[in-house]
Amino acid sequence: MTQARLLDGAAIAQAVRTEAAAEVASLKAKRGVTPRLGVVLAGDDPASAIYVRNKDRACREAGMASDVVRLPDATRESLLQAVRRLNEDPLVHGILVQLPLPPGIDASEILLAIDPAKDVDGLHPDNAGRLLAGLPGFVPCTPAGIIELLRRSSIPLAGREAVVLGRSEIVGKPVALLLLRENATVTVCHSKTLDLAAVARRADVLVAAIGRPALVTSEFIKPGAVVVDVGINRCTSTQDAARFWPGDAARQEEVRAKGWTLVGDVHPAHAMATASAFTPVPRGVGPMTIAMLITNTLRAARIAAGIPVGA
Ligand code: NAP
Predict the structure, then answer these.
(1) Active-site position among 98, 118, 119, 252
(2) What DSSP letter does each residue of 99-143 carry, written as one string?
(3) pLDDT band with cut points at 50, 70 and 90 for residue 165
(4) I need a surface site. Which of 48, 53, 163, 261 has the fewest CB within 10 A?
């Protein structure tokens, strides 16, 4: 039986970051500008702390500056104040408020307070509207990373049937718009979609972003489809690990040693047996998200320096 080609997000993300680092060096040398990201970390969610640490490290590796504003006891007011300070700081080019915010704080109000010109996560309604209108702007990092991963893997999109599982503002909706921009024929599914598997099976390119561990099984996947797994979930059972990654003793060992391993929204063994190409979890879409944060921050710095940028 032929196995799906693994789309190596980690390697492609590294290539994107290396290219960005060269551009950062040139911006510094020619204009004296160092791109700078301001990250706001609210509350004490351990996963958020890890994501922020990785983003901070990636910025530094690309030669950018990065400041993390930590608000362990964040309130609506302290968050708004932190965002305002970053908006007003001329040395800061990009702002990222790490989500989710602590319970009781309305994320949409905080995101609305970000200067759209510094909104490198692309979540401000101005940038979401620009994407919808086909205007240049900041595109959310995960959807932008998915398109970049497919482009650099030479996966054709024009004229192909794309199905997106999930309709969140952060992944599902923007990736659907980007696929449409690439001339795919796009269907968006959600929790009220009837016969999800039958709709998914129409896809030449299937994007799963629902947050349900390994829900997408072989009955969802048309033989030969390209499957993009956005999900990041914990698999805590060694039996599940044995089913998801048969013959991969390291995965079961990871569950035994650490208590969990990461699994996406797609059953990995089923995707490997049915798809023509598949993004693994980890080392698929995740690293691309960070790479696009770097390129978005670089873009913001270039615009602020008056240098023309593409769409
Ligand atoms: P979200 O905001 O919770 O949205 C989930 C979407 O999936 C919703 O539209 C929901 O439908 C739909 N859904 C949930 N259960 C479903 C089901 N059983 N059948 C059909 N649709 C269903 O999640 P998100 O922020 O988009 O994230 C999705 C996944 O991607 C999560 O695992 C998250 O951790 C991961 N993620 C990864 C990255 C990365 O860098 N790799 C970045 C962001 C997110 P309704 O709208 O009807 O509720």
Answers:
(1) 98
(2) SSPPTT--HHHHHHHS-GGGBTT--SHHHHHHHHHT---PPPHHH
(3) very high
(4) 53
**Spatial strand order in the sheet of 205-208:** 5-6, 277-278, 226-229, 205-208, 161-165, 185-189
pLDDT at 1 over 70: no
pLDDT of 23 above 70: yes
Residue 4, CB-side half-sphere exposure with 13 Å CA sphere: 26
Q: Are 9 and 287 in contact (CB under 8 A)?
A: yes
**Cα(212) to centroid of ligand 1, in Å?**
8
Q: Which of 50, 108, 146, 210 to mutate to test the pocket of ligand 1 (most atoms within 8 A of CB)?
A: 210
Is ligand 1 within 6 A of the CB of residue 168? yes
**For residue 44, what pLDDT is reported?**
93
What is the tens place of the pLDDT at every residue in 188-214?
999 999 999 999 999 999 999 999 999
CA-closest candidate to residue 13, choices 298, 299, 229, 292 = 292
Active-site position among 8, 118, 119, 121: 121
Question: Any idea which of 77-81, 139-143, 307-311 has the lowest mean pLDDT?
Answer: 307-311
Secondary structure of residue 248 in the 3-state scheme: coil
Amino acid making up residue 105: I
pLDDT of residue 308: 85
Ligand 1 neighbourhood includes 191 CB (under 6 angstroms): yes
The question of whether 73 is a catalytic residue gets the answer no
Residue 233 Cβ contacting ligand 1 at under 6 Å: yes
